[in-house]
Design a protein that fits this description.
By secondary structure, the chain is α+β, with helices and mostly antiparallel strands. The protein is about 60% helix and about 10% strand. The chain is elongated, with a radius of gyration of 18 Å.
């Protein structure tokens, strides 16, 4: 049984760690993910499934290649892993993030959607999807994605900040912007840039 874990803390958004021992079989069924939230440190998402030891090794190697800046080989290997373990959300989500960083937004969205098919309530995938939707001009969809991520974990400050900026600059919804900027500052009180944005929004609202 292999356990795939997504941990999110104060400064980490995209890293995915793998723990446990892989077996020699694979599964194509979706794997229910367990989401545990801890207000002080973030959230942990775990997926457990029987996967081949070769798939596990390829997954680790793909992440290492991406960390080393070898996007082409890392993406190609992650694509193979995702095809071998389609029921796991983690490889699809990492693939989506990798495509996003490479500027391939269409491929990134397709991978993230597959990850969400396996785990519809994955906050990191929902936040990443929201960013892509915002970049491609689908602002209402982006708002829904950010809000869905926050419904899973309200302290997800990356999604909170993204929602605030979206409401401020793209939707002209100043009440939404102020509410989410202030909520964001509760988790990241040292963000001076956000403090300036809050003052600007209040000024535009006549407060």
């Amino acid at each position: 049984m292999s356990r795939m874990v997504h941990r999110l803390g104060a400064t980490l958004v995209t890293a995915l760690l793998v723990a446990g021992c892989a077996t020699t079989s694979t599964t194509s069924k979706s794997v229910p993910a367990k989401i545990e939230t801890q207000e002080a440190v973030g959230f942990t998402i775990t997926e457990e499934a029987r996967i081949g030891s070769d798939v596990r090794a390829d997954y680790d190697r793909a992440l290492a290649l991406l960390d080393a800046g070898d996007k082409e080989r890392g993406i190609a290997l992650l694509d193979e892993v995702a095809a071998k373990a389609p029921g796991l959300s983690a490889p699809h989500i990492d693939l989506g993030i990798a495509y996003h960083r490479a500027g391939e937004l269409e491929a990134a969205e397709a991978a993230l959607v597959k990850g969400l098919d396996a785990n519809p309530n994955h906050p990191i995938a929902l936040n990443e999807l929201g960013i892509i939707q915002r970049k491609t001009g689908r602002f209402d969809e982006a708002r829904k994605s950010y809000e869905a991520a926050l419904a899973v974990y309200s302290g997800f400050h990356f999604a909170r900040r993204n929602l605030a900026v979206l409401c401020d600059l793209y939707l002209a919804d100043l009440e939404c912007a102020l509410e989410n900027y202030e909520a964001y500052m509760l988790t990241v009180p040292g963000d001076d840039e956000a403090s300036i944005w809050i003052a600007d929004v209040k000024n535009r609202m006549g407060r």
